[in-house]
Amino acid sequence: MPKVPEGFKVDLVASGIEGPRVIRVAPNGDLFVAASNANEVHVFRMGKESAEPEEHEVFASGLNQPYGIAFDPLDNPQ
To answer: Which of 4, 8, 11, 44 supports an S-S bond with 53, CB 3.0-4.6 Å?
Structure first.
């Protein structure tokens, strides 16, 4: 396990993602993961105070080795 400062902890959120490259946290707390080898972007809708996602789905597919993820507008993405 990675070492983290006192008061913090590390939990596994997901596994089996093909070529994860970038993780971004949306303003609402959802986690977006660019899976470059699978040419997809996944979204994990997180539960309250849990590392266990309540929902996991492919947000976008058919991409060409996605890497960057941006939210627009940042304060209220559409």
So the answer is: 44
In SS3 terms, 9-49 reads as CCCCCCCCCCCEEEEEECCCCCEEEEECCCCEEEEEEECCC
**68-77: long-range pairs with CB below 8 Å, 24+:** 68/22, 68/34, 69/22, 69/24, 69/32, 69/34, 69/41, 70/24, 71/24, 71/26, 71/27, 74/27, 75/27, 76/27, 77/26, 77/27
CA distance 54 to 35: 20
Q: Quick one: which of 18, 42, 15 has its CA closest to 30?
A: 42
Question: Mean pLDDT across the chain, nearest whole number?
Answer: 89
- At residue 75, the pLDDT reads 76
